[in-house]
Amino acid sequence: MYFKRTFDGVLRDWYGRPDRKPLILRGARQTGKSTTVREFGKKQKLCLELNLERREDLNLVRACSSVEDLLAGLKATRNLSDVPEGTLLFLDEIQESPDLIQWLRFFHEDHPEIAVIAAGSLLEVRLQERGFSFPVGRVTFRTLHPLTFLEFLHALGKDVLADQLWEALRGRKAAPLPLHEDALKCMRDYLLVGGMPEAVASWVNVHRPAAVREIHTDLLQAFSEDFQKYRGVRDLSPLEAAFENLKYHVGTRVSYENFAPGRRSGQMKTALGRLEGALLVTRVWPTSDMALPLRSRPKSAPKLLPVDTGLALTTMGATIEDLRFLPLEKLMDGRLAEIFAGLQLLASRPGRSEPLFFWVSESSRNSAEVDYLLPNEGKTVPLEVKSAASGRLRSLHQFLWKAKQTTGLRVHPGQYADQALEVAMSGETLKYRLVSVPIYMTQAVWELLKSVLNTEDDS
């Protein structure tokens, strides 16, 4: 079962570029990389696939000493008289062949008429271990994340709901209350199921939480077994300890020293770096900067995002009843809302690899923390995540005051609103604009930012 993805458009845009380079497709295991490429390949004149975990395909590559040899071998084994212009060549599990990785530059330079996509499990980790890198300036990188909430709605067949939510936000107005309430209910299901394609397919077919949890358990076991493929790592126990203890730290600021019992901070920092290389976690970096470029704050703890909400909640043993009925602010002490928002922000920028940042005040006497800082059009826009429809915005106010900015964003369980507000700051008055977005539409924030900034009175 294939679900339409926003990433389909990313592939179309890449394929149609006159200056197209080989595409390196990143993503955690089982996020749908191979399936997405194969589905895209059905729409092209010819799609050729080499999966280097298959012995015959790996042997073919190893028998070749150049791109020309490889193309000749493909013609012979696939019974082709020619490889026509526009052919899509999919190199899956490319990490098994360092030579093929280096040949990507020659595909770019000598055969630009062939569209090449390369992908692989644990790609970044394996290449780092072997000391290899991709040809600089001759490849393009894109990342496929689990399905977003709006993609989840489309998978469920709720196309009308998804389209109307988009229409309301693009019109910068609140969606009708019944649609809003239906979206919040579906978001509860999404938190439980997550966006891993196999789990979503199960939910679409049988709609049973227990079946989804079983898939999550199997996926987590597969991630753990993948550690055996980490070559060059003599002792896997720190990596296993880091993975096992993720459930205690997601959504929080990470202390490497106390991450896992009996483990040194250096071990945990290295282990988390490897897990991040496998895209199983993402570190959100603290910064005290208010203008671009953003830099991480030295010796300040990052926050940790899991790869998927459904997988994370399964590891934590969250009950179905809690996810269905508890207020959002009570789930993981409100951290689940921030995790959800962060994952949606990451997934809705598949062509970008910039890290996410959150803002912390430099003053120890007046602490403040804004959940995310979003770069846009040369500015930084502060975004606060609230697990309840109302709540104080003290940190957002501090950022706007110090940065001399007048627009802030909030995602929350309430409806869309665009308000002109005032608040007292240090004996003076901060006049600012607060744009509030329903939390289930977090992935639309990047698109909304442009229209918000373009209508600022002081821009």
TrEMBL record:
The keyword Membrane does not apply. It holds the Pfam family AAA_14. Transmembrane segments: none annotated. This is ATP-binding protein. Residues 225-387 form the DUF4143 domain. Residues 20-153 form the AAA domain. One of its GO terms (molecular function) is ATP binding. Keywords: ATP-binding, Nucleotide-binding. Coiled coil: none annotated. InterPro entries: AAA_14, DUF4143, P-loop_NTPase.
